[in-house]
Amino acid sequence: ETGVTQTPRHLVMGMTNKKSLKCEQHLGHNAMYWYKQSAKKPLELMFVYSLEERVENNSVPSRFSPECPNSSHLFLHLHTLQPEDSALYLCASSQARTSGRINEQFFGPGTRLTVL
Amino acid sequence: KNQVEQSPQSLIILEGKNCTLQCNYTVSPFSNLRWYKQDTGRGPVSLTIMTFSENTKSNGRYTATLDADTKQSSLHITASQLSDSASYICVVSAKTSYDKVIFGPGTSLSVIP
């Protein structure tokens, strides 16, 4: 679909499980984003990494832990989640902002997460 | 407070008809405004991007307008097709060191035969 891939596409987990979501971008970008999209609600920004440094953490509970080992990969580690965490988790990438340029985000297909 | 509002919340139109979706925003400092199309359960796909100095941008049957003075934008879809059924999201980008975007709630469009 795009140059941003996400795995797995679907995940069902219990509240005591530990799992990780993976995102990989093949666009040469250096900023990566995690979003949460719950049913009938706008996308919510969770984390932003720019040049491999976390630049934004939008008051996300500690049961979500991001990791950005390099500019092409982004992980979201999940542990002791709640049923209300069930949602579509989207990854995106862009170039870090440079003066005068629009560096739009390209989205992956998302991981549909269900917490039982 | 940075905010993006959209109307209508949902819309049903007949195949072949035109429609217009609205977006109002209060985002500062403003960088650019984008319209995305999101199919159910998929990631959003960019349709148009407009900066402060642009007041219209077309992409095939999609035409977006921007009035930076009133902070309003519209997305006009002509000759709708069944495949246009999706959520259309207005996204406004603020001027920061990374691409800080504020998403609107989206308009759910259903095109019926």
Report on the architecture of this protein:
The complex is a heterodimer of chains A (116) and B (113). Chain A is mainly beta and 116 residues long. Helix content of chain A is 0%, strand content 55%. In chain A, the strands form 2 sheets. In chain A, strands 2, 4, 5, 6, 9, 10 and 11 form a 7-stranded mixed β-sheet that branches. Chain A has a 4-stranded antiparallel β-sheet with strand order 1-3-8-7, with no helix packed on it. The radius of gyration of chain A is 14 Å and the shape is globular. Chain B has 113 residues and is an all-beta fold. Chain B has no helices and 11 strands. Chain B has strands at residues 3-7, 10-14, 19-26, 30-38, 45-51, 56-59, 62-67, 72-77, 86-95, 99-103, 107-112. In chain B, strands 2, 4, 5, 9, 10 and 11 form a 6-stranded mixed β-sheet that branches. In chain B, strands 1-3-8-7-6 form a 5-stranded antiparallel β-sheet, with no helix packed on it. The radius of gyration of chain B is 14 Å and the shape is globular. The A-B interface holds A 1-2, 4, 31, 33, 41-43, 45, 48, 50, 55-56, 88, 90, 92, 94, 96-97, 102-110, 112 and B 31-32, 34, 41-46, 49, 51, 89, 93, 95-101, 103-106.
